[in-house]
């Protein structure tokens, strides 16, 4: 391998290249995350939470649409389906996006665009995302106030979305740290120049000017191309409307990375000014500082890569399992869930809850209510509670396959117990006894049940359970009023049929309790989409981490080589094998490998512990065996590169 020299221009060049490249990468990445979480152009949002005074859907939505059109701004509502992102926009925006395609990020995403007038159920209680800032929002607010409609304002959640992305946050922190280290090395490598500058009383600005002057022209060309290429690509592909979001993110990222470089420069000046000027004039770096920096930078880089590999493996397995559940959820087309609002105008809470429960019981008498609750028992095994309608739709091969007939509809409570797991059903028997009834036990095997649980986050429960214990309530038996409210709120109680769902949501006595109506499958799809976005972010973060690791490995190896080259040169001149110094370098690298292996072992033990505590925790913390092999390959490749650079003898000395 040809020798690699650590020249005074090497790291300044990397500083400029890294700052420009990372600003583009993280600028695009952050714009992608934000537009995946909120519709394009959103800089604020408000949630309509109650029905107005004699306000029809056409009147309310028409007025909001007119405000958006008059201000030249966008107003959108977002929904999700298992395979598609659905955006309802004001009429002007919808017409533009239908004609030219949705111009948001990421490219290639399946997006349907409709007008606000096409919102499901003709329901105006939605979360609306708007552009135009506070001034435009005040116009929406006045329109809603005049109609007696309760609403809640909240700003764009961009910071929460970015901080909530684990891969983005980890990689961004590492990138800032790496750039500070590069700037630190850029200054310390030019130790001789800094020493001369110290003798002449040079300022920080002079140090910066030296780094800029030492940067080769190709690096400036790369920085210019990296700056211009993304906006040009967005414009050429019809995504010019995404350009403002990207530019804002790019400027913010560039400012942060330049600040990190400045911090590294200041730290280097402090270290250098604390050293003896004669030593600096010889251009010699302090070996303990170099070795310590190597251990910290290499160790953090490898641990971060290992952490992302473990997380990506776990979430990848989860996404693959969710894809197996997708067909079951795609078949759930007529079931709707409700979100309960905090708005309480008229009627009051005490009056509205019984009214809501009465409306639910009326629908239950028509067979339009599904009550399905999946809860863990004390053994942390899932047990199901169904009303008869949910039981009929959930069980495979069906109630008849278990010897349960229509004659049991109005009978007593039935407990379906797995033949091989009577203990699991025992908890349900005891629970039923506490409620004052004794269920008829039906032992069965080979059955499965759909859970109707759309989950709460990206880690979704399984759509189907194999041989769970099931407590089945007869027709006409629902919980008390407060429990009905709770079941509606948490999604355990759902309604079949669009007309029935709309009827409950617009009930004049209890409709103000309901904030929104959504297809149950759409709720699951939203969580699944979150998992897909997070996985894509993790994979992009992993690729970025590997690139940062490669750069950090080269930089650290060059710095260590410069610090130890004198000792190795003595061995070369004497013709003595370098067994001892090479062994010391291998031991130094082994420390980094051991730290990484320790982290992987800790991750594995943590997943095992969580699995022993809870099936739910185990489900969300799978340790994929392939992670060990991939991390080992990264460690070996990184160590081989580091050792090759540090140990290799310069060509000019081999020729001599």
Topology, number of strands: 17
Distance between the termini: 17 Å
Strand order of the largest sheet: 12-11-15-9-8-16-7-17
- By helix and strand content, what is the structural category? alpha+beta
Uncertain parts: 1-6, 343-348
List the total number of helices: 22
Domain module tally: 3
Mean pLDDT: 79
What fraction strand? 5-15%
| Shape estimate | flat
Radius of gyration, whole Å: 32 Å
Helix content range: 55-70%
Biggest beta sheet attributes: 8 strands, mixed
Protein name: Putative secreted protein
Keywords: Membrane, Transmembrane, Transmembrane helix
Transmembrane segments: 12-34, 167-190, 211-234, 246-268, 538-560, 581-602, 622-647
